[in-house]
């Protein structure tokens, strides 16, 4: 810019400006830095894949739950996903539903990178009403009947 100001001795010096506010982008960067996590996934071939991902605190996560349908062509799984989505949203949860026609590995990898606190997977046991709930912060997974998902999330939110 070539802009100068006069200092106390009357000499022209370049303008120097500092901005020390905490904006949204700095705050998000700090949260991501503090909550980044290395995820290790074992492939069916026994190989290990490593990926960094965010583990959003529930207070800052853009959604509360990541709901994934493993096989979108499975009508029972799709119906259970829709039922769960309606139930969760009715209870006030913000839900990101992944019903893309993608391989499950792609969906799980994307889920790890997005970093939502809870992942609910509707998979092979959908016909029995069983889903998998994964707690992102610990990596723990539990199988739960779909009718008990809301109760399970309430219990997990108190931990």
From TrEMBL:
Keyword Nucleotide-binding part of the UniProt annotation: yes
Domain Anticodon-binding: 64-153
GO molecular function, a single term: proline-tRNA ligase activity
UniProt-listed Pfam families: HGTP_anticodon
Swiss-Prot/TrEMBL keywords: Aminoacyl-tRNA synthetase, ATP-binding, Cytoplasm, Ligase, Nucleotide-binding, Protein biosynthesis
Matches recorded under PANTHER family: MITOCHONDRIAL RIBOSOME PROTEIN L39/PROLYL-TRNA LIGASE FAMILY MEMBER, PROLINE--TRNA LIGASE
Name of this protein: Prolyl-tRNA synthetase, bacterial type
Stored CDD domains: ProRS_anticodon_short
Gene Ontology CC annotations of this record: cytosol
Known EC number: 6.1.1.15
GO biological process: prolyl-tRNA aminoacylation
Transmembrane segments: none
Top-level taxonomic group: Bacteria
């Amino acid at each position: 810019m070539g802009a100068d100001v006069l200092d106390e001795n009357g000499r022209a010096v370049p303008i120097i400006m500092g901005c020390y506010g905490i904006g949204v982008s700095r705050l998000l960067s700090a949260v991501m830095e503090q909550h980044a996590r290395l995820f290790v996934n074992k492939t069916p071939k026994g190989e290990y894949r490593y990926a960094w991902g965010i583990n959003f605190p529930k207070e800052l996560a853009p959604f509360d739950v990541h709901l994934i349908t493993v096989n979108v062509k499975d009508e029972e799984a799709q119906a259970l996903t829709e039922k769960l989505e309606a139930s969760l949203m009715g209870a006030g949860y913000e839900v990101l539903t992944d019903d893309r026609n993608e391989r499950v590995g792609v969906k799980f990898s994307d889920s790890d990178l997005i970093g939502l606190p809870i992942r609910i997977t509707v998979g092979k046991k959908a016909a029995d009403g069983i889903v998998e709930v994964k707690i992102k912060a610990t990596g723990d997974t539990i199988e739960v009947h779909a009718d008990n998902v809301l109760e399970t999330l309430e219990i997990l939110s108190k931990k």
